[in-house]
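Model the whole thing, not chain by chain.
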Amino acid sequence: MPLQRLEQNPLIVPADVTPSRPDFRVVGVFNAGAARCGDEVVLLLRIAEAPRQIERDWLAAPIHDPQSGEIRVVRVRKDDPDVVFRDQRVFHYRGQFHLTSISHLRAARSRNAIRFAVDRQPALCAEGDLETYGIEDPRVTRIGDDYWITFKAVSPHGICTALAHTRDFRTFERHGVIFCPENLDVVIFPDRFAGGYAAWTRPVGNHGSLPEMWVAHSTDLRHWGAHRPVIAPRPGMWDAGRVGAGTVPVVTEAGWLAIYHGADANDRYCAGAILVDREDPGHVLARSPVPILEPDADYENEGFFGGVVFPGGSVADGDSNLLVYYGAADDKVCAARTTVEALLEHLGDGAGEC
Amino acid sequence: MPLQRLEQNPLIVPADVTPSRPDFRVVGVFNAGAARCGDEVVLLLRIAEAPRQIERDWLAAPIHDPQSGEIRVVRVRKDDPDVVFRDQRVFHYRGQFHLTSISHLRAARSRNAIRFAVDRQPALCAEGDLETYGIEDPRVTRIGDDYWITFKAVSPHGICTALAHTRDFRTFERHGVIFCPENLDVVIFPDRFAGGYAAWTRPVGNHGSLPEMWVAHSTDLRHWGAHRPVIAPRPGMWDAGRVGAGTVPVVTEAGWLAIYHGADANDRYCAGAILVDREDPGHVLARSPVPILEPDADYENEGFFGGVVFPGGSVADGDSNLLVYYGAADDKVCAARTTVEALLEHLGDGAGEC
């Protein structure tokens, strides 16, 4: 496989993270965005928390209250006839979906890109009525001295993508919702194109359309248009169920190279590579015929939601080496090494399979 | 009721429209945008067409082919076990939704706002792979000398909203997809706000969220951000199932006033009024407690899809009078008169019901 897991995996686990309040426990630290900032590598982590005390036979959903700014916990009996339990992440109560945890974003910092110190305080928390179920899965793109952060804003209104930016990962400025429901897994390109800035998005329709990766353009990163599909799930293949952008693309001689995730019909999440035109981020040149990383390690199959590797960011590590950070089993941060050359060689094998 | 149907209704019926090709028949002319242009009222009509010859026991879906630019017809037997027939508008075949008609946009022109001459040629037709199932439900907003047209672009990729503009309703310039799936019923405000241009949108998520009206902002009409919810369906009321913007808002002393549609759980579409803050199109001041128009007339209950009144545009008709154009039963254009005063008085009765 072109991706080689670090022997230090997992790099960060829930026990490494201080809960944001004493009555909560950390159930997951995963799906991090990544960037170099000064002489550090900064990961922007998704921290999922749940109430520490949940009575047997009960389900609990922590919900941000926009009025008070507090998190209140909704509890329902598992055997309540109005409850439909889907999996450990989600249940439905009276037709409304609920999450069993609520996520915030928090920074972790490292000098060697491997051993991280996790901040004791959140970087960004749920705010307002579009984030009552939390904020999730950040991606971080550096443009000049600014780091632009996209993240999922989750509430009964649906799943949107919001934008914030920072220069130091200590203070953050928010810029509202840039993609309305349903849209997630948004990754901004680090350079401008003829059509302005570009981002890969993951809209999902309500009429049987598949979870595809799209591209959108912007002149100011806050307003987006010129939406077009880029890649769709491929029936019968490893990414038959859904696809979504993962790492921020890096420019190569051959085009923009990135790592995306795909899931099959059983929600098994793998990682693949994608290469798009240098001038047109919507024009796909090549795409992994087989995964470059699949959930094989124990720490990828055992956890909050097993069978998941979910790439969220990468940093350059030497001239053409990449260190790719990924979420494992929805509760740990892991990393794998690769090189631009290895990814391009892998893509050369299946360049026809877009 | 504050809305009074014209006695000349229906104003335009399918027999008034020349098909775009000889082997097609017009099955609906409806859901028009409206604007004054020079000394004419122009309606931008949705024209739905189906193949003239459909064999008994067969279903046919006309589909735009982006490669050839032609419309090809997919035919399946009704008793094919892979067919799920939903209603006369839609069937599913092997999990994929299909429409039994394909729509284009066409202008109709009138000196008296009531008797219209329908162009013999389409104004805008399906183009590219996001419109293979056609384009639908235009809204027209005049800003300066430009008329900005939003419309649904429908394909297996989902339902998006595309943008075009014209100065004369004879030549049109397209500006791509401004809202990705799923988004429809987009109405642009005719004036700028502190946050730039504004539009009401109708995103629909995939996680049990309801079809709500949202607001978005733009600096150039082509790129949009700052998405926020505005109104949601109200359980137990006439708009319990879905809500969506209808006419372009008109400014009054009390705020921006518009007519929107709501449907109940049985897909019965009615019209109501909405009043929002003059400075903030996302801040609702009042909303119809009961419909201002419901499908009661025969021509609203009998047709391609009965039980529908669907407001799509209005024109000023005297100082504070409004002529509201609406689709009836998904196949005819109708109109009703009202006044700003009557709508505000109606809203005053239920101002608490937002």
